[in-house]
Amino acid sequence: MSGEQFTPEENEIVRTVARFVEERVRPHVQQIEREGKYPQHLVEEMMELGLYGLAVPEGDGGLGARIPVFATLFEVLANGWTTLAAYVNSHSTVAYAIATHGTDEQKRKYLPGLASGEHRGSLCLTEPGCGSDLQAIKGLAKDAGDHYDLTASKTYVTNGAKATLLLTLVKHPVAAGETKPRISLLIVEKAYPNVTVTSTFEKTAFHLVDTVQIEMDGVAVPKSQLLGGVEGKGFSQLMDSLEIGRIAIAASAVGLAANALYEAKRYASERVTFGVTIDQHQAIQMKLADMATKLVAARLMTMEAALAKERGGRCDMITAMAKMYASDCALEIAHQAVVVHGGAGYIQDYVVERLNREALLYTIGEGTNDINRIVISRRMKGEEEMQYLGLVP
């Protein structure tokens, strides 16, 4: 993404993170993946760089990155190692939610720790059997005087084992005169009694990013932990916050795609067949051209989504488009990078083998791409974003 629209200070942050990626991350990724050991040293360096505070305002100890800068930094991280972007993705969504929708007390209590990495945030949304249908959750927060009695089962919780704060989507019992339950977000400290990590899932890729199931069995959650202090606001708060998550996923997918294209281009310039390097064969040239074109288009759409979010107003349509398109492109580009490598692309010694496995997750996380297509189609019935995107005469 271009830095022309960034301030000198913002460009320096991007350059600093890029140096970190090129010097401290990229040369060691394959070895770290083979060893399967959690990269605590890189996480600590990310904390020192302020990357856990991307979505935390400067006044609360964070970087307070504008959303286009936020997106660019996710691309830079994912271009080096997608796992590092995954460590701060849901964390940043939690930080954004508290910074944007939290009470003054909640902001004072949690934002400095989220910025430093002392607190690690994770989203507890999905439940067994519910999938992307978040309005069908069964997690229940019963009024118990000065606290809620929370019982919920949350699955596929990214970074849940390392997290200290669980932003948890819950329902309240249907009150008299109401036709449906109110939905809220609770800031649940994982240290509360009866919060338990019960399963760790083994995945196709991202093996060093923990994905777990968390049970909350009769957890006493102080009412001061209700995000924003008003019941029933959770779904709108979540939809606003997930727009940030979609931008982070889209930018991460762009970073992965950029890495895949780089590896394909490098390999094609070195591999010799029929007396010439394969980048002189038209078949390979056309693949690389298509990969580069899709990458640039995905990057531009992601930046457009970031700019729209920064301007305010409804932007779930463009963020859904960016997430869907960028992840679809990343999946295709990663696959074509394997094809360019031929048989070598199926060998774990080569980066593209891993990237091909990782790319699939981006089409699933932050709402599957088909869910995002539904979001887009529903928003097409309105006028605001249709006009902004030039989709009406």
Task: Fill in the keyword field for this structure.
393 residues, alpha+beta, Butyryl-Coa Dehydrogenase, subunit A, domain 1, Butyryl-CoA Dehydrogenase, subunit A, domain 2, three-stranded mixed sheet, globular
Walk me through the topology:
Elements: H1 8-25, H2 29-35, H3 40-48, H4 67-80, H5 82-101, H6 104-116, E1 121-124, E2 140-143, E3 147-158, E4 165-171, E5 183-189, E6 195-200, E7 211-222, H7 234-270, E8 272-273, E9 276-277, H8 282-311, H9 316-341, H10 351-362, H11 369-379, H12 384-388
Parallel strand pairs: 1-4
Antiparallel strand pairs: 2-3, 3-7, 4-5, 6-7, 8-9
Helix pairs in contact: 1-4, 4-5, 4-7, 4-8, 5-6, 5-7, 7-8, 7-9, 7-10, 8-9, 9-10, 9-11
CATH class of the largest domain: Mainly Alpha
Give the N-to-C terminal Cα separation. 30 Å
Principal-axes geometry comes out as globular
Low-confidence stretches: none
Percent of residues in helices comes to 40-55%
Which sheet architecture does the biggest sheet show? 4 strands, antiparallel
The mean pLDDT is: 95
Tally of discrete structural domains: 3
- The value of Rg in angstroms is 21 Å
- Quaternary structure of the protein: single chain
* CATH superfamily descriptor of the largest domain: Butyryl-CoA Dehydrogenase, subunit A, domain 3
Per CATH, the architecture of the largest domain is: Up-down Bundle
Strand order of the largest sheet: 2-3-7-6
Query: What proportion strand?
Result: 5-15%
Q: Tally the helices.
A: 12
CATH topology of the largest domain: Butyryl-CoA Dehydrogenase, subunit A, domain 3
Number of beta strands: 9
